Amino acid sequence: MVSTFAGADGDCLQKGEENERFSNLENLVLIMFEQDTVLIPKETAWFGYYPDGSFKPVLPPQETELYTEDWIGLRTLDEAGKVHFISVQGRHLGISEEDMQKHIVPYLKDQSSREYSTNKAGFWRMRGHSYRELSAMK
């Protein structure tokens, strides 16, 4: 039997298909919002989920098949110290500027290429800020 799961784009992927690309990330910052009502359970932000056939308890990511069988490379990244599980107050995607500075910007500052500027500017545009505002925060 081939195990599948829905990827970020909603397409079904075979186990291991995304593993190589995912496990090559330098860092993976997973942010869970404590008052999230969009993701159910909110722990899915960290790849946690319910056990098969049940709605309780919520399994931490390290106890899911996705992790233990390393379907996407999450276990490989975690064992290498590259996964950062962050929990912040707020509703879905309602991250404060203080939490952005604390939990996201340090990973963006480590980038030195043009890609850094594009990614950082794009993220801030998504949050309704201009790149100039971000530059002023440095």
TrEMBL record:
InterPro entries: AB_hydrolase_fold. GO terms for molecular function: thiolester hydrolase activity. Keywords: Hydrolase. PANTHER family: PALMITOYL-PROTEIN THIOESTERASE 1, PALMITOYL-PROTEIN THIOESTERASE/DOLICHYLDIPHOSPHATASE 1. This is Palmitoyl-protein thioesterase 1. Gene3D superfamilies: alpha/beta hydrolase. It comes from the Eukaryota. It comes from Lotus japonicus.
